[in-house]
Amino acid sequence: VAEDLLKRQVTSRSLLAVQGGSNGGLLVGNMLTREKRELLGAVVCQVPLLDMKRFSILLAGASWMGEYGDPSTSDWDDFLHKYSPYHLVKEDATYPAALFVTSTKDDRVHPGHARKMVAKLLGHGTAKDSTFYYENIEGGHGGAADNKQRAFMQVVQYAFLWKTLTNGKLPTKLQDLL
Where does the Peptidase S9 prolyl oligopeptidase catalytic domain start and stop, copy by copy (predicted)? Predict the structure, then answer.
């Protein structure tokens, strides 16, 4: 879809972003770390599943092995490692700006997925200045406990996209978004 939008000049890379949560977080995590990342100006990754090597030992992860496979078996070598965003971060790659949002009290996807990914990107030469993180200490898998929190999180995400995609100047810290 991104390639088609760019090919037809509906938009440009500098104005194109993706956003997804939970399984959609896995999808956009892969868009961030795999070969098509150069198509994107920004990524918003919400309550994401990102470490496919350890997902089965965190919270509800064991219940997903029927869908994803068992990383403690040959499933890891056969296919799981090919779409594990955490394991696909490469030192020689350039990554688009990214905001990761999660919730401390998420009972489905452990916030450790987002925490580890952000830590890895903050240690990366080209991603350290364009990777941002917000963890709500309340809420659950939806990321917020009430409408006020949900609205705040939406403002943070849209402010990130607005500032990242419209003027090309990234904020120096999350608080600068608002």
Answer: 1-166
How far is Cα of residue 54 from the mean position of the Cα atoms in its chain?
A: 17
Q: Are 24 and 46 in contact (CB under 8 A)?
A: yes
Active-site residue set: 22, 141
CA distance 55 to 23: 12
Q: Which residues of the chain form beta strands (DSSP E)?
A: 17-21, 42-46, 97-103, 131-136
Residue whose C-alpha is closest to residue 55's, from 129, 109, 127, 126: 109
Q: How far apart are CA 146 and CA 143, in angstroms?
A: 9
Q: Quick one: pLDDT band at residue 105, thresholds 50, 70, 90?
A: confident
Query: How far apart are the C-alpha atoms of 158 and 145, rounded to whole Å?
Result: 19
Please state, as a whole number, how many other Cβ atoms lie within 10 Å of the Cβ of residue 80. Answer: 20
- Tell me the C-alpha distance between 41 and 27, whole Å: 16
